[in-house]
Amino acid sequence: MNYKPYPSEFWTQIEKTIAELKNAQKPLIAAFDADGTLWDTDLGENFFHYQIDQKQVPLPENPFEHYLEMKKINNDPRSAYVWLAQINQGKSVEQVRKWAQEAFETIRPNPIFSEQQRLIDLLKNHGVQIYIVTASIKWAVEPGAMALGLGAENVIGVETVVNNGIISETPVLPITYRTGKVEALLAHTKKTHPFFASGNTMGDYELLDNATHLRLAVSAASRDDRLFKTEQELATAAKEKNWMHHRFI
Fold it and tell me: What's the predicted TM-score (pTM) here?
């Protein structure tokens, strides 16, 4: 699919900001949400569908509906996000990563937003430390990071404790949703805030608000997509706060 390119002034602003930070010898850190921000799909849910279809782990009847109902409990989806990691309890993390790569390879066409790939490449060329901070399970998002030329170490996501290579049911805290994204990111950066952050929904609001210089809200959901409302809410917030915003379609 052809996506709208970023305007030229966006690239000018990015280059100018990086140059200023380099001259001031400031640390260069950028943070991105994953699903709907870097690619036009949800890698966490894609992996869950793959696990359902391949019967890789024990699951309740109507597992995807079960997951959606869990997300509604107390209007807090965090337990549902963690559950998608916990269902892999007893499996080796090596096995789950292999399954996640296989699941990613089933997605056609390539779901990565070309302008985000271009932005990642630019940031890497300038020596920027890049983090993908996601409410999806970390292992499901790692293949997307690698497709962008990043590594598993660049992904901060929902996961459970791994003991001797085996996945447990104990959540790793904080859970990377809303304020948890910021907490987890700052734990990785030794409390250094990113100069740039990008996301697509209100679940990313705190991540963008935490950036010191540039914030970019993006969207691509169609009107009948369940993400459309929350993407529009973030776009509205971006306009009110004078953040950058861009619609890919």
Answer: 0.97
